Amino acid sequence: MNTNKLQTPCFVLDQRDVVDNIKEFQNALSSFFPQSVISYSVKTNSLPYILKLVKEQGCYAEVVSYNEYNFAVRIGFPKEHIVYNGPMKSKETFLDAVRHHSIVNIETWREIEWLQELPREETFEVGVRLNINISAISPEDENHPNDDSRFGFSYESGEWEEALARIAELKNVMVVGIHSHREPKTRSVSFYHNVISYVQDVIHEYNLKLKYWDLGGGFFGSMPGKPTYYEYAEVFYKTLSADLHDISIIVEPGNAVVASGFDYVMEVIDVKKHDGNIYICTDGTRNDVDPFFHKSDYFKEVIYQDEVGDVASQPQIVSGLSCLEYDRMFTLPAGERRLQPGDHIVLHRVGAYTMSLTPLFIHYFPVVYLKTSSDERPQIIREEWTEDEFLQKSIY
Ligand SMILES: *Cc1c(COP(=O)(O)O)cnc(C)c1O
């Protein structure tokens, strides 16, 4: 990529990558299922351009708060193409979504209460989220012992049965869907085998007549050596018992759709040398690309200004613009080529849980470009936030 014309720091979106991911996932699902839906997890990267792009590809929007629900409506998703999950629904948007045939998966007791306010003369459909304890159903995928979940109604505790019973009291509301989402770090194919086996036992025990099964997200995107969309779809189909083969399968990928489509570009602005290290200061920040502060390295590429350069005999600690000591992104070991002011560093595959979690700390949201061929002018799809955007709605 030619980064010369870019204002740094910035994100660069390769929209073809996102579209290819969606198409491949759609093809994989439709090789097995007569009906399937990809519902894009809005929280994973809520850049409006991305929402527009996934809508154009026929995806639904998966939202987990009243803000995201209103946002998806504003972007233009028909309400029946919105999957509404999570505890942070407002009563108003919850009832609006149920009445307009969104796919609404019940997460809290208060939502069951709210159902009573629906008009009695019409019938309505909802789904319910089932609690999944990874250690109990797929111990090889657990992140830690008793890898439990805060979400959904638990079968083992009796709350699942209680939730179904309370909904059944409402003669005008039918449970037509089940929602099961967990995100093990392994993202393994066998995890979905274990989840499906567990959930379908519950479906059979309660003799649920379902229209859809929302299998959640948690998938790898296309990446060498990792499970493919096809392998996930195949395990869904092979694990499902024959009586469930016609169910509509919904997946809610976030990471699998957007992670690979975004690069982050930063420029070296200063170099210092002391304590046995070379400290590289860039105009980027770890806040933009590692908001959970767990990464120690990246899929990275250095674009040197000069064609040749000497080798650094000390480690080069590549760090960010902020005043935080821990704003250090990665270390190049001794023996790598020396970085100099003006050099560019590109971090690849940084589209998931980065831009949507960036704090407005010291530096505001960076500019976002669309990837274009090297002779074209870079196209901006979100301008850099300045003090104007930061000040909006403040009273002072
Ligand atoms: C976050 C989330 C997703 C997306 O998860 P990925 O790992 O990014 O695919 C899907 N569904 C629900 C309910 C979520 O909370």
Task: Briefly characterize the structure.
The chain is 27% helix and 23% strand. It is of the alpha/beta class. It is elongated and about 75 Å long.
Mean pLDDT: 96
Topology as H/E string?
EHEHEHEHEHEHHEHEHEHEEHEEEEEEH
Overall spatial form: elongated
First and last CA, distance: 44 Å
Number of strands: 17
Instruction: Please mark out the parts with pLDDT under 50 across 5 or more consecutive residues, or reply none.
Output: none
Rg result? 24 Å
Bound molecules: pyridoxal-5'-phosphate
DSSP helix fraction: 25-40%
Structural class: alpha/beta
Strand content: 15-25%
Number of helices: 12
Largest sheet: 9 strands, mixed
Cofactor: pyridoxal 5'-phosphate
Pfam families: Orn_Arg_deC_N (PF02784)
Modified residues (N6-(pyridoxal phosphate)lysine): 43
Keywords: Pyridoxal phosphate
Structure in words:
This protein is α/β, with parallel strands linked by helices. Helices cover 27% and strands 23% of the residues. The strands form two sheets. Strands 1, 10, 11, 12, 13, 14, 15, 16 and 17 form a nine-stranded mixed beta sheet that branches. Strand 7, helix 8 and strand 8 (212-214) form a beta-alpha-beta unit. The longest helix is centred in the middle third of the chain and has 17 residues, at 189-205. It is elongated, with a radius of gyration of 24 Å. The structure holds pyridoxal-5'-phosphate (PLP).
Keyphrases for this structure?
alpha/beta; 12 helices; 17 strands; binds pyridoxal-5'-phosphate
List the topology elements.
Layout: E1 10-13, H1 15-30, E2 36-41, H2 48-56, E3 60-65, H3 66-75, E4 82-88, H4 91-99, E5 103-106, H5 109-114, E6 124-129, H6 134-137, H7 159-168, E7 173-179, H8 189-205, E8 212-214, H9 229-239, E9 248-251, H10 255-258, E10 262-274, E11 277-282, H11 286-289, E12 299-303, E13 316-319, E14 328-332, E15 344-348, E16 367-370, E17 379-382, H12 387-391
Parallel strand pairs: 1-16, 2-3, 2-9, 3-4, 4-5, 5-6, 6-7, 7-8, 8-9, 11-13
Antiparallel strand pairs: 1-10, 10-11, 10-15, 12-15, 13-14, 16-17
The structure holds pyridoxal-5'-phosphate.
